[in-house]
From TrEMBL:
<dbReference type="InterPro" id="IPR036047">
    <property type="entry name" value="F-box-like_dom_sf"/>
</dbReference>
<dbReference type="InterPro" id="IPR005174">
    <property type="entry name" value="KIB1-4_b-propeller"/>
</dbReference>
<feature type="domain" description="KIB1-4 beta-propeller">
    <location>
        <begin position="71"/>
        <end position="348"/>
    </location>
</feature>
<dbReference type="InterPro" id="IPR050942">
    <property type="entry name" value="F-box_BR-signaling"/>
</dbReference>
<feature type="domain" description="F-box">
    <location>
        <begin position="11"/>
        <end position="48"/>
    </location>
</feature>
<dbReference type="Pfam" id="PF00646">
    <property type="entry name" value="F-box"/>
</dbReference>
<protein>
    <submittedName>
        <fullName>F-box family protein</fullName>
    </submittedName>
</protein>
<dbReference type="InterPro" id="IPR001810">
    <property type="entry name" value="F-box_dom"/>
</dbReference>
<dbReference type="Pfam" id="PF03478">
    <property type="entry name" value="Beta-prop_KIB1-4"/>
</dbReference>
Length: 375
């Protein structure tokens, strides 16, 4: 009898330490299946103290037929459908530390961990512009003078990021770019409303948490300007570092092994239908001495970037991941309402060449976003 396999009841009674160790060998879809076995296993899965080390997953939105969430595994080159009810009907506005920022049709803004299902309800968003709240547009009569809700969703929150992982500390803050002019606002746990950052009279393109501070970048008079964003008792955005020449590009801020980089993405309309990236230039920023220089990393590390907080990985630990590469998602712009998203690229920072990591015959309904499952 001692050689008989353990009964189902026996498996459900395994000690939590053993179950936690088992989860360290599971892929993201298998991790979800693990949590559905029984109540005890579900409880362990929600703890997620020993996650498996994996490359970032690409969140592709919702499958029309099943309403399940679509995830693309770069390591396996495979798309998975995973049932996560909290993601149904949601627009994704950001990704940090394995958490997703979601926005629904009722304008409810939330922070969600898709693996543990833990959520934070965030306060109502600040006014869309100085004249009207966003609800004036999306809940008013539909006519040619009104945006569709889908188009307005893309403008509500351009990007949202965290300073620290909420799974490990309740002392965290959220910074968002929001509204008609991509203004800045922040929130910390316990606050009833968003705190607005005094207007810097600039439209921001990207935000980052770098060396224990928030930073933002935007374009003014044909130059990219970097701002230190203070979220203390007297919040402000202060210009720091050099002015970086801008040439009709979209600009990202990247933390590359402790170096602050500006990545400029040059895009043109392709066949009158969608934007296509034609060129990328990378600058290393010296904030202290207000200097910048063109940069070609040779350390071998790669960066996953887009609407998410950028993630740097060591490709030598992940088969199939290219070294010295930028893995770029498409940009969250209103053009998606008409044409969808398709500009998903790998940029070789040494060779200056492009390739694709995800090909689709159909336009995606919205910009995909990278999710780090390692938290």
């Amino acid at each position: 009898m001692d050689d008989l396999p353990m009964s189902i009841a026996g498996w459900s009674e395994l000690h939590d330490d053993v179950l936690e160790h088992l989860t360290s060998f599971l892929s993201l879809p298998d991790f979800h299946r693990f949590g559905a076995v029984c109540r005890n296993w579900h409880s362990v899965a929600r703890q997620k103290r020993h996650p498996p080390r994996q490359l970032p997953w690409l969140v592709l939105g919702e499958d029309d037929a099943t309403h399940k969430s679509k995830f693309f595994s770069l390591e396996e080159n495979k798309t998975y459908l995973i049932e996560i009810p909290e993601l149904q009907g949601q627009r994704l506005c950001g990704s940090s530390y394995g958490w997703l920022f979601t926005l629904d049709i009722e304008l409810n803004f939330r922070l969600l961990n898709p693996l543990t299902r833990k959520q934070y309800d965030l306060p109502p968003l600040p006014p869309y512009n100085s004249h009207n709240n966003i609800t004036t547009y999306v809940k008013g009569p539909r006519s040619e003078n009104y945006f569709t809700f889908e188009a307005m969703q893309l403008s509500l929150v351009a990007k949202a990021i965290l300073d620290h992982d909420p799974s490990r500390s309740s002392d965290f803050k959220v910074l968002i770019m929001y509204g008609e002019r991509n203004r800045l606002a922040f929130w910390k746990l316990g606050d009833p409303t968003w705190t607005l950052i005094p207007d810097a009279y600039i439209r921001f393109n990207d935000i980052i948490f770098y060396k224990e501070d928030f930073y933002a970048v935007g374009c003014c008079s044909r130059y990219n300007e970097i701002y230190l964003v203070n979220t203390g008792l007297s919040p402000y955005a202060k210009r720091v570092g050099p002015l970086v020449k801008e040439y009709d590009t979209f600009t990202y801020l990247v933390d590359y092994l402790g170096e602050l980089l500006i990545v400029q993405r040059y895009r043109k309309v392709y066949k009158g239908q969608l934007y296509k990236t034609e060129k990328i230039i990378i600058f290393k920023i010296d904030l202290e001495h207000e200097r910048y220089s063109e940069y070609k990393p040779t350390e071998g590390y790669s960066v996953f970037m887009g609407a998410n907080s950028c993630m740097t990985v060591d490709p030598s630990k992940y088969p199939g991941c290219k070294k010295n590469a930028l893995y770029l998602t498409d940009l969250p712009q209103q053009v998606f309402e008409r044409h969808g998203s398709k500009d998903l690229l790998i940029y070789d920072m040494v060779e200056g060449s492009f390739s694709r990591y995800y090909s689709t015959a159909h336009y995606l309904p919205a910009s995909p976003i990278w999710l780090d499952p390692n938290y």
